[in-house]
Amino acid sequence: MIFDLDGVLIDSEQVWDEVRQSFARAHGGVWTPTATRDMQGMSTPEWGAYLVSSVGVRLSPGEASAGVIAEIEKAYATHLPVIPGAVDAVRAVADRFPVAIASSAPAVLIKVFLDVTGLPVPVAVSSEECAAGKPSPDVYLLAASRLGVSPAACYAVEDSTNGLRAALAAGMTVLAVPNPHFPPAEDVLAQVRVLSSIADLPGALT
Predict the structure, then answer these.
(1) pLDDT band with cut points at 50, 70 and 90 for residue 182
(2) Using an 8 Å Cβ cutoff, are 14 and 181 in contact?
(3) In 3-state terms, what secondary structure has residue 12?
(4) Do you know which Gene3D superfamilies this protein is assigned to (predicted)?
(5) What kind of fold does domain 13-78 have according to CATH?
(6) Domain ranges (residues) in the chain
């Protein structure tokens, strides 16, 4: 079972969006109507470059991404917005299956989540390690490889359009917990099994 992080286990998509928008405007950028959805699923290098090339942030891509991540770390230090039922769901699933995280979040933030929750997740992969972020399947394929299983033998749990596309492209059985703030595209939801909340996951596997 491979979990996305942002939007599935922590209610962080809004935090990311607010921090990126504020950071962009503070550094000469102009937020566009599509910027939020465009960046969902991008790897750190990808969205750092996007902030510069498409939003107009007057920094290097590396400076932009480092600045945003530092602000996210500060926000998490005050409050890590774990989604209700997520920790119990992961623990219940981990009793039955090997589990992993495959996230577009940088490794440092995945570690914060695992340190705070103490969850038994032996494999955690950031798309920073991959050639491309979601909707490319790379991060899911790498997580399956590190679990030592075929992608076809994996479940994936996602919340966003790009994340769902990535897991589908990896050839996994995909479960969607749609993000209420940024609902996935209906044509993608039609291809997966939809759950109303992460708390429903263990029961959906019986």
Answers:
(1) confident
(2) yes
(3) coil
(4) HAD superfamily/HAD-like, Putative phosphatase, domain 2
(5) DNA polymerase; domain 1 (1.10.150)
(6) 2-11+81-204, 13-78
